[in-house]
Specification:
UDP-galactose 4-epimerase, domain 1, two-stranded parallel ribbon, 36% helix, 4 helices
Length: 115
């Protein structure tokens, strides 16, 4: 999740800041990893939708529902800033798992919960 008052140690902020200032970023792996970056307002809408239509004991996985490859994400930031990134490739830690991200069908069926 990203948005105003977001954590500065998270990838969207770190990459944006580093590319803007010309500081090398750390790229883990070959850049093919994927994430689902969801804007905070979309999560808030989903939470409010779930509160407005309470369903006891239901669990919702709120997300944008689309992943973006790390290399594409970095390229998008470069294009937005009009600057080239510099990066150091690093290995993933042993045992690190790649997140499996997808939007749960339940959040699409529930009124106003989909993002």
């Amino acid at each position: 999740m990203y948005g105003p008052r977001g954590r500065p140690d998270m990838a969207p902020f770190k990459f944006m800041d580093s590319i803007y200032r010309g500081i090398p970023i750390q790229q883990f792996g070959d850049g093919s990893s994927q994430r689902d970056y969801t804007y905070v307002d979309d999560i808030v809408k989903g939470v409010i939708g779930a509160i407005d239509k309470p369903r006891p004991y239901e669990i919702y996985n709120l997300a944008r529902g689309e992943t973006i490859q790390l290399t594409e994400f970095i390229k998008l930031i470069e294009d937005l800033l009009g600057k080239k990134s510099y990066y150091r490739k690093k290995r993933f830690s042993k045992g690190r798992r790649t997140p499996h991200l997808r939007r749960h069908p339940k959040s699409q069926r529930t009124p106003r919960v989909h993002t």
